[in-house]
Amino acid sequence: MNSVILQLAAKYLRWLLIVFSVLALIRGHNNPGGGFIGGLMAGLAVVYRGFAYDAFLIKERMQNWPEWMIAGGLFGILLSFLPSLLSGKTLMAGVWLKIPLPLIGELKLGSPFLFDIGVFFTVIGVTLMFVFSLTQKR
Amino acid sequence: MHLILIVFLIVSLGIFLIPERLKNWKPFLLSIVQGAAFFYFVVRIPEITTAEAKYLFFEWIPPLGLNFEFLLDGLSMVFALLVTGIGALIFLYAKAYMKSYTGTDKFYLYLMLFSAAMLGLVLSANLIQLFVFWELTSFLSYFLISFFHEKESARKAAFQSLYITGFGGLAMLAGIILLGSVVDSYSLHDWINGAESIRQSKFYLPGLLLILTGVFTKSAQFPFHFWLPGAMQAPAPVSSYLHSATMVKAGIFLLARLSPVLGGTNEWIYIVSLIGVLTMLTGSYFAITQTDLKGILAYTTINALGVLVLLLGINTGESIKAAMLFLFIHAFYKATLFMVAGLIEKKTGTRELSELGGLVKYMPFTFIIALLALLSMAGLPPLLGFLGKELIYEAKVQSPGIASLVLILGVTSNVFMVAVSLFFARKVFLGKPKTYKKKPDEKGAAFLIGPGILVLLSLVLGLFPGNLGTAVIKPALGVVSNEMIDVKLKLWHGFNQVFFLSLLTVILGLLLYRAMVKKKKLTETWRKVNSVIFSVELDEVFAWVMDKFVKIAQLKTKTVQHGYHRLYILTIIVFTSLLLWFQVFVIRSWEFGIPFSLKPFYISGLAVVILGAAITSAVSRSRIVTIISMGVAGYGISLIFMYYSAIDLAITQIIVETLTVVMFMAILQRLPRFAVLSSRRTRLRDFIIALSFGAVMTILAIKAVNVNLNPTISDFFIENSYSRAFGENVVNVILVDFRALDTLGEVTVLTIAATGVFLLLKTKNKKL
User: Fold this and answer.
1) Measured between CB atoms, does B749 come within 8 Å of chain A?
2) pLDDT at B579
3) Quick check: pTM over 0.90?
4) Which chain B residues are within 8 Å of A30, Cβ to Cβ?
5) What value of ipTM does the predicted structure carry?
6) Binary contact (A110, B658; C-beta < 8 A)
7) Cβ separation of A138 and B768 shorter than 8 Å?
8) What is residue A29's DSSP assignment?
9) Where do the structural domains in chain B lie, given as residue ranges?
10) Dihedral sign, CA of B268, B274, B278, B281?
């Protein structure tokens, strides 16, 4: 597809989508969103750009990104089990840290959030792997 | 003592970290580790005789009654000493033997792990734990036997031993579970305490038979003995270790271990001693006609194992005493002889009897060592073997019931053993030297240290057996047998019945030996007669059965795994919907009452649109139309989600729908033109199946709304989402906290699916 408008839109909207996807990830615990949705949105951002330029693989060196993202995501999930394991709770039980911050208030960080980040990256990786594999030139 | 196992494990993996230029020191290091373990056990011998046995307990999976239990008592001590002591010498020998091969790191890893598994086995006091170690030894011996994996015979032999011992192991597991259910425990303590109830339960005979199957396969008893000669494809250190102190001795160990629990009954005595006698006879009889050095030794091992099983089967104090002593005797001479055979093969390049001769000229020390070991095997004084044979005869004389038969067969088999031992020495070392490719020598001290020490032990212990008897064998006897009898070992027993039996054996053996040497034709005709009488080789029967088994499996696979994707899906859907219909019928799912209304009109309108889109996608002949209408259905559903304020679901549905359409578009360009390939009947069939599946899913979905779980799980999630998981978005909290395991599973499935797609397209790409 060779549309200038689409290409120009894709150039900026892509980053907007990625920012939104991260936002969805972060706010996911209290509002609609989360790792799964965020991951899909980020994946969509890449697909969107790919559609506009008719090239899904943006650069050759991006070829291995899906693998790394899946591996990293799964590793993050694995890491998220550590806090519960180390604090002697049931495996996968949420462990929360409350950090008081000036101005913003209290920041709650928990192992479920790490889990969500892991899901986020795995889903991006899986989406990209599907799309890259299906659209590669042959 | 569990620490020894851990040390073994660490060391066996640690050898990979040792730099390449120190390669030759690796076996040396392992030998030292084994020696240290041996020392550890030797130091603890006094504790065994005086105090209570050392017992360690670790929880493993307590709800299932599975725990790690280690026990160092008299019986484990006997085996632990053999495993570590001979292990140390084996590694020393392997240093010289394996020098010229590549991949030795792997070899030492397997051998060390194997040794650890065997040690774990003999220290186990929990039957399930014992089974785990038992299977580990089978498994590791597979790697050891197939070390020269470029040879087909080695691979075949390794598979054979794995199948047979693996099969036996499974039977044993079933037996353990069966008998464990009687006392409701797998702990050896409970088994011994509940021995009476086990022996009287109706599961006794089946359980006994199953466990004995495990024992007999592992210890190469008739009719499973054929895997052992096959296993001689392994490198000499492995054969030496396998035959003397480990692997085949595991069965003997289990038999001795369970003898207080299962032994003493008529079933035990008859089954075990009968198999023992048969094996004993088979081993010694076939040993005579072997032409391969290691083959002779393998069959003599079968003979020795038969003797051990027979003795444990007779199950009197005397017989168990004899068994424990014979264990040492056999380990000493068999390890020695296999090491010598390996050395000879290494130096002359052959193991065939007919190509060997006159080696005494080149290898005098080897000759002395081998001769002493062979004399021990033949049971001649003053070696430990003589002592053992006397005790065995004594035990057989006193055996209940079938004494005379056992005695006659025992003497026969020993006559063969005497003849074989002498024949071995005569053919290999004496006579005219044959021409060898290179002049044999006995360079390499490491070759002879191990055999030398073992033969020396045989000799010294044969002359002064007192300490061995009181320090090691008596405690072992106390564990295995309830009878307390004195263990006073001495070389000279006086002129009694047993002595004359020995004399008879030796004389007959010498006569047979003379006949074999003088008349060359005798052995050859014997061999021919054997091949006619025993034309059915168990080895080949086994191969035939395996072959047929594989063929049947192939046939089955071809029928079930036909490779047609559409038929797979068809099978899955038909089967699922049948099951669901059945369930629907049973719980009378059609009886539900929900108020049905068409309000609000925009939702019912949406439903009509979705329905229309779905029908269009099914009947349309244009792919683009199909995909787009599927998209319409998907977006419609997400709108319904939105209406019922399931925002998360709606967002996910929209994005997934988008991605699906995009992916379809990507594939679409590469697909051939649409064509109607299936017949009208197939399409009708598919239509009915699809309709039925859709109907049942609909009923299920409606029913799901009506089912009232008490209390409903969603209430729990809503209540606890914020208070306990600090999240206001219930859906997300369920995903990442309450049901994180499910999410993990889903993410993993996604990953696998992506990998599948990736590989599928990638390989295809390469081919083109």
Assistant:
1) no
2) 92
3) no
4) 727-729
5) 0.84
6) no
7) yes
8) T
9) 562-591+681-707, 597-675, 710-768
10) positive
